[in-house]
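Tutorial sheet, problem 5. The two components below are modelled jointly, 468 residues in total.
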Amino acid sequence: MASFKYNNVYINDSFTVAGPLEADGQIHKFDLVMNDYYYKEKTFLDAEIKMQKTVIDNLLYRNKLKGQIDLLIGGDLSNQLSITSHCAVNFDIPYLGVYSACASFLEGMIIAANMIDTKRIRNSLVITSSHNLNSERQFRFPIEYGAPRALTTTFTATGSVGIIMSGNMSKFKLESATIGKAVDYNMKDATHMGAVMAPAAALTLQEHLQELKRDVDYYDVIITGDLGEIGSKIFKEFLKTSFNIKLKNHLDCGGEIFVKSQEVYSGSSGPVTLPLVVFNKILKNNRYKKILLIATGSLHSKDTTNQKKAIPSIAHALSLEVI
Amino acid sequence: MNKDEYKKLVDKLTPKENKSKNAFYSFLVGGLMGVIAEALVVLGTNLFKLPKTEAYLWVCLIIIFFGCLLTALGFFDNLVSKAKAGLIIPTTGFAHSVMSATLDYKRDGFITGVGANYLKLAGSVILYGILSAFFCACIGVIFHG
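Model answer (structure tokens):
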């Protein structure tokens, strides 16, 4: 059993840096927007490190918490988490790097929430980032190479989101969480990550509802990370046939960032997709009170997919309450 | 739901690529490339009085040059991903793949970056190009002596 309820964990503040394409999309209320993919640096790696640094700097400054953060938890898509680590050396804060691909942010939040709830730490800063061109280079083709794309491909979002969590009361309460299991449904196509991750999302949702003895209608909205348009259909169909759960109040962040004319195929992906939508749209709109976040991650590397190994996937769930 | 059932579900819900439309566009763009190249050959043989074999070489160089230049200027990738095989199969595709890999690795140094990676995508074209040329030559030798 890996579901917990929290008594005293809150999200105090969030800060977002978004990429240029994201700012032209459906959401217009980002804290900061970088006008080009270099962000006044020489390489894309440096640009992503700078995005993370900017987020942390702003969060510390705005909340007057310099020198008072107990734990920094971060994750990104780069090999060996090099980007988050290069960012973390700039701050004198104990640091944990986490990787669950596109579910890294929620993994970080769950770790922080457990430690805050058990009073091991007072507060924590959780951060994530992804950069479209860094991911292209690492997982797909050289940046300037115009490879033909399958309709199922997702487009890695560019941006960085950080939040401050603590036991101090605020409007957003973390209510409960479920840590998912790694699942393998013999999907080998890294250009169809929606199909890879949909079973993980469905199984985690089912487990969450079962362990906390809840009905799916308990939540006002169930938000998945980056299944994309096609992945969402598979996710719903899977829930219906396997667990007889009919999902009406579902929203996938993959379709909430870009507009159709931006040609992003099946939608947006990357660890930043979910927090980008949740902290800049969902929580600002005040429409929902009980929110379940399910972040999904496709745990492959270029080597494992080239060697035709089935891709394992993971999903973590976290329930938020707006007070 | 077991793995086989899931595969059926995924196949059912995954949209299919419109192959005939892709083939039509590739034919159109690839054909246009051929027309341009042929026009350049005619230009070379008539205007500059080049022998035909030399004119073909020049055309090849010109196409490679423009494939590289447009890649470096940053918009050739959009054309290639739309025209698909129409621009990948001609020499433009080869030039494009070499140039994009080179640009990608220039920050990693000349030896460990550019030198080691510039044939990342084009390496297979070279290897299997040489191999198939060898076997074709063998067949030629056997049948025509």
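Marking note: Chain B has one domain: 19-144. Full credit if you identified this.
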